[in-house]
Amino acid sequence: xxxxMQSKRTNTSITNKENLSLSIQFSLDGFSFSIHQNASSExxxxxxxxxxxxxxxxxxxxxxxxxxxxxxxxxxxxxNSIDVYYKNDLYTLVPDQFFDEQKLSTYLDYSVKTxxxxxxxxxxxxxIQANLVYIPYVNINNFLFQNFGEFEFHHYMSLFLPKxxxxxxxxxxxxxVDFGKRLMNLAVINGKQVSLCNSFQYTTPEDCxxxxxxxxxxxxxxxxxxxxxxxxxxxxxxxxxKLIEKYVKxxxxxxxxxxxxxxxxxxxxxxxxxxxxxE
Length: 279
Hints:
With 279 residues, this protein is of the alpha/beta class. 25% of the residues lie in helices and 33% in strands. Strands 1-4-3-2-5-9 form a six-stranded mixed β-sheet, with helices on both faces. A five-stranded mixed β-sheet has the order 12-11-10-13-14, sandwiched between helices.
């Protein structure tokens, strides 16, 4: 039988089921979730479902996750709060001075193909005085509302950008990339300012290298001096990493400080942004 999904989770158990909060991250690769007690910044449980091949549409994603939600008992607790994060390339950043809440679809028209039925939403990213306008997966929202009731939803980059701003050196330039199986989310940080934020779909390691080096070239960053910080679905044995390290001298993995992944097969850099939501 062909394996179509990988499931990983921590070997911890939740003994105190009161005051629990849930964070879930969805992408076309699958979904991950973390549970933490409201009184603590540390996650007490983490689970992950990744498809061997990404799906192409949100409808396919919903069809795959519905039985997983029904079967996973850790998702059946009575949560005090639920935060959902969508990791996709259907977004754009708009500085505060140019932002008008009544024109969300207009902002997306410049970079994303939109339809009249699309729901446009936005997150305030106060750390950079901007708003991230994006399209969430409405069918996933409807499914979650039917199962959990009220919850809050956001875009993944609204988590990612403040975190990399926080860890980037005051006077340094860093490129931060979160790799999915077919999507790479990239931000270039100069000191405490965002120089660039974009996402690229890719199919080969050469695609990834091209986007990295082209971005560096456009910002006049020598690839030999580039400080590349990576996380997500990438490791030292992957073809993408092996190709990148031939051209970029300074490559480091960005790890979460959350201790929930200790003594698990899940790399600490794999869920950098999601576990930051619990820190």
